[in-house]
Automatic annotation (TrEMBL):
Keyword NADP: yes
Protein name: NAD(P)H-dependent oxidoreductase
Species the sequence originates in: Flavobacterium keumense
Family: Belongs to the nitroreductase family.
Signal sequence range: none
Cofactor: FMN
Length: 210
C-alpha cells in the first residue's frame, strides 16, 4: 500500500506530453485490462472505450478539446463513450455473458435479469444517459490507478465539446456519446506542473466520522 500511495503522489494531470515516447504494447494491454476489470453498476459496463492512434483524427480532436495539445501529443488518446438509451438489450447481453462464462442456464439468473430490467428500463431516457455516463468515471479511476503503477501519465479531460467529438468519431451513429477524454503517455521534461506540490484538502477537512 505504501507504493500505491507513493504512486498517487507521483501522478498529476499532465499538461505537456513527450510526443517522442510511446507506450509499449504490453503496458497498453495492461491498461486495457484494468479498464475491462473495472467495477460498474450490475456489471453492465454500458460504454465503449476508443483508443485513438490516428494522428489526423487526433489533430481534429484538439479543436474539439479547446486546443489542448495533450490530445495530439500523448502516446494514445482514450475516449470513453457512454451508451445512449441503454435498456433491455444491454441487460440481455450481460445475461448471456453470465450464462456462457459460468455455465448456467438463463433460468438460473432470470430473477436477477428481471430485477435489473425493473430498475433500469422504466427510468427516463435522460436519467439513463446520465447514469451510463457516470459509469465511465469508474473505469477512468481504474485507468488512473493502473497507469500510476506503471509510471504512465494520464490527463483526465472533461474540457471538450461532446457533440464535436461525437461527429468526428461518428459516435452518434453508434448510439454513443463522448463522456471523457484521457490522453495517456509520458510527461515532457518541460512540463513544470510535475514539480508542483500536490494540493489536496487535509484529512480533517475531508473526512467526517459519524
Amino acid at each position: 500500500m505504501s507504493t500505491f500511495l507513493e504512486n498517487q503522489n507521483w501522478r498529476y494531470a499532465t499538461k505537456k506530453f513527450d510526443a517522442s515516447k510511446k507506450i509499449s504494447t504490453a503496458d497498453l494491454n495492461t491498461l486495457k485490462e484494468a479498464i475491462r476489470l473495472s467495477a460498474s453498476s450490475y456489471g453492465l459496463q454500458p460504454y465503449k472505450v476508443f483508443i485513438i492512434e490516428n494522428p489526423e483524427l487526433r489533430a481534429k480532436l484538439v479543436g474539439a478539446a479547446y486546443g489542448q495539445t495533450q490530445v495530439a501529443d500523448a502516446s494514445h488518446l482514450l475516449v470513453f463513450a457512454n451508451e445512449l438509451n441503454f435498456g433491455a438489450a444491454g441487460i440481455d447481453q450481460l445475461a448471456n455473458n453470465i450464462c456462457a462464462t459460468r455455465g448456467l442456464p438463463l433460468e438460473a439468473i432470470q430473477g436477477y435479469v428481471d430485477y435489473m430490467k425493473g430498475n433500469i428500463t422504466g427510468l427516463p431516457e435522460e436519467t439513463r444517459n446520465i447514469w451510463t455516463s457516470k459509469q465511465t468515471y469508474l473505469a477512468l479511476g481504474n485507468l488512473l490507478n493502473a497507469a500510476a503503477e506503471l509510471k504512465i501519465d494520464v490527463t483526465p479531460m472533461e474540457g471538450f465539446v461532446p457533440a464535436q467529438v461525437n461527429e468526428i468519431l461518428g459516435l452518434d451513429k453508434l448510439g454513443l456519446n463522448a463522456s471523457l477524454l484521457a490522453p495517456i503517455g509520458y510527461r515532457h521534461a518541460d512540463d513544470d506542473t510535475q514539480y508542483y506540490k500536490k494540493v489536496r484538502k487535509s484529512s480533517d477537512e475531508l473526512f467526517i466520522t459519524l
